[in-house]
Every structure is written in C-alpha cells, then in structure tokens.
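Weekly modeling sync, notes
Attendees: AB, CL, MP (scribe)

Item 1: holo prediction request
CL wants a bound-state model with protoporphyrin IX containing FE before deciding which constructs to order. AB pointed out that an apo prediction alone won't tell us much about the pocket. Agreed to run with the ligand included and paste results into these notes for async review.

Input as submitted:
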Amino acid sequence: MTAASTVKAIGVDERGIPMVDPAFVPQVVGGDVDWRGQLDALREAFPLFRVGEDKTIWVTRHETARELFADGETFYEPNWVQQFGSHDALLDGSGFKPTDDFDAVAGAHRQVRLRRAVMEHFTPKYVKTWEPRMHEVARELLARFSDRGECDFVNEYSKYFFPYLSAQWLGAPKKDWDQLVQWQHEIFQLKPTTEGDRMLHMSGQAMNSVLQYVSGLIAEKRVNPDDSFTSYAVHTTVDGTPLTEEEVRGIMTITVLGSAHTVTAHLGEIFRHLADHPEHQKLVAEDPDAIDALGEELLRVRSPFGHSRVVTKDIDFHGVQLHRGEQLFVMYSMVNRDPRCPGFDQVDVERRPNPHLAFNYGPRRCIGLHWARFARNVAIEEWHKQIPSYRLGVDVTELTEQIYAGTGFPSLPLVWK
Ligand code: HEM
C-alpha cells in the first residue's frame, strides 16, 4: 500500500481544515522510514492541515508557501530584537507573542534596517575571502580520520565544520570552539514538550550558556575591537547611529543559532544520499564544478526543517478564514517536492536555476546563504579529494533522523577502503 492511499484526516476543525493523525508527522524516525514520501502524500491530499489537536496550520504547496513568505507584514516573523533582543523569552521558552498594540509594519521595517546594517559580512565577495580558511578547516578535520577507513560523518566532520568557521568569524578564541559546538548541537536536539505541542523549544541549559557567551563576546568586542563579525555588529551604524544593545544581541544570537545546525543537517542529508549513489560520488570527485548544483538539488529534495509565521490580521487565505495570532508552518521538504512546480517530480543534480524555498523567500530569506553554499561546496570538495568512494557503515535501520527541527541525522557512520 502506498503512503498516498493511506492518508486520511481523523477529523476537521470548525473551518473545515483537516486534522491528520500525528503518526503521519513523527518528530524522530528510523533511517528506513520514508517520511518524505508520507509528507508528499499529505501535500497531495491537503493544501492545508493541522496535526491532531495542535493549533498550527501546515501549508503544503510550493506556490502558497512562496506567497505567504513574500508578505512579511501579514504573515509575520518576529524581527531579531523581538526574537532574541531580550533573552528572557528565550530562556523560559515562551518566544514571541503579538500583543494588542503590536505593529507588524513597524516590526518588519526595523528588520530591514537591521539586515542592512550587517549585510557587508554576508555578501559573496566577503564570504569568498574565507574560502582558504574553509579548505583548511575541512582538511584539519579530515586529517583526524581519513586514514582510518571509517568515521561518524556527523560527529567527526559536519558537526564541527561550520561551527569552527563561524566561531572564528564571530571572534571567539580557539579554546572555546569545542564548547560552542557542543552547546549548539544540544540546543537543537528535540526535547519532550507539552502534550500536542510539536514545535522545537530552544530553552534549557545549553541555550542559557550560549546567550551568556554571546553577551560576554559583545562586551569584550566593545572594549577590544578586532576584524570579527561581533566587533563589526557592535560598531556598525545605520544613518550614522550605532545599533542598540538589544539589536546587537539579537543579531549575534540569530547568527550563532542559525548557522551551525543548518549546515550540519544539510551536509548530513547530502552524504546520506551520496552514500547510496556511487555515480554521484564519482561526479563530484571528478568535477568540483558539479558540486554546487548537486548540493542545491539535494537541499531541495532533502530540505532539513521548517519555519512558522504569525498571522497579523484576520484574512481570507485561499478560502479559509485565518485569525490574527494564529500560526502557520511550512515544512520545506514538503513544498520543495511539490510536482506542481515544473520539473520538481524528478531529481536532477544538474538543475539550474533551482527555485527551491529551503533558504526561505522574500524579506526574511536566509541572510547567510552565501556562507552556507560556499562552505558546503568546500566541505564536499575536500572530502572527495581524500575519500572519493564510500558507503554507509551500518544497516539503514540503525540510523535515526530528527525530521522537522534540528539536526537531521544525529549520527551517520560511513566506511571506505
Ligand atoms: C544549509 C544551510 C542553511 C539553511 C538551509 C538555512 C536556512 C534558513 C532559512 C530557511 C531561514 C529563514 C528562517 C525563517 O524564515 O524563519 C534562514 C534565516 C537565517 N539564516 Fe540561514 N540557513 C543556512 C545557513 C546559514 C548560515 C551559514 C548562516 C550564517 C552565516 C545563516 C544565518 C541566517 C540568519 C541570520 C537568518 C535570519 C534572517 C532573518 O531573520 O532576516 N544561515 N536560514
């Protein structure tokens, strides 16, 4: 029986939105579970749905997701100050809640200002200056295990690769790098939350430690400026005015949290695919120019997580009445595999352009995407220079995957001759 033929709602809410069995949307699965096939089936069955009694509404189709991401005032993502400027909301796990006097337009405009203030550190030109260091970090990590004939890809390579680079870019001293890696990894492990609440909550000891660390780094760079990103954020201005303490804290926290598990998860998904596809290993080993398109296509078909938006006014959305304060959620893997988007029913590792939404779309598109792409490509290139051919080191049933928040594969054993 196919997943598509087994999808049915267990009920509908008062507006007719289907409520699906939570078993269709697990949080952690075994490596042999075709959870993406299950989500594909849900997308084909329902343009919108809810998971059991959970209030969040999932948006499943590519065009609809693009539309909601493009309208950042109606479908709001809290700006960096609202999300991370005050660390209290993060520490108690409550996050952003729109108050009665909340102004989405002002909030969105402030975010544009903040992004502009730090953009210089995210341009392709700036990121390219880090390319030699990216190669060095990849080679340093590979030297730890390439002679051994086996490794845990996640716990020995991808978990460290970008966090080591970003720690250096942020201006953290080398003695702190491993500690930062451990905290970043821990924050994105799913923890049990209240009954029916299925989203990731980032509170906890590791989160607390990262927030304290970020505050300490900011204070240090105010006194001892250098060429790090933290120092840049502390000293940058908009229209001649320095950023507030809250703004700097917000920017630094989102950068620490947004950069580590994302690249780790993406690389894990790529190498999980490559481990079963020797023809694609050969392609990237023989032609480094093929890496970027392959990486983007695997980001499309194996997108690692999803993001939500808060509805800021009562609105009719594709025939469904939405209310101010409700939450919508998009799982990137689901919308990026929508066959309504021409060509998306086939895996094409040479696809260009690739209009996937894995970096989001519109005003809140990933500001770090050039970092992500450059670094990913270097991590793949350096690996294949030394280990051109490899396969899974365990039976697929022994793998687990954390599917819609967090780090993808917590462990990915690979072996080679
Ligand atoms: C493959 C790796 C990555 C993926 C798939 C990814 C994906 C995303 C997505 C989907 C968003 C939008 C979040 C939302 O709408 O709520 C986002 C935002 C963001 N990302 Fe990335 N990201 C990656 C790597 C990075 C890296 C390496 C950095 C930093 C160097 C970074 C920094 C950020 C920041 C600061 C934001 C917030 C932008 C804003 O709120 O305006 N990301 N990322």
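Recorded for review: Residues 77, 111, 115, 254-255, 258-259, 262-263, 266, 307, 358-360, 364, 366-368, 371-372 surround protoporphyrin IX containing FE (CB under 6 Å).
Action items: CL to compare against the apo run; MP to circulate these notes.
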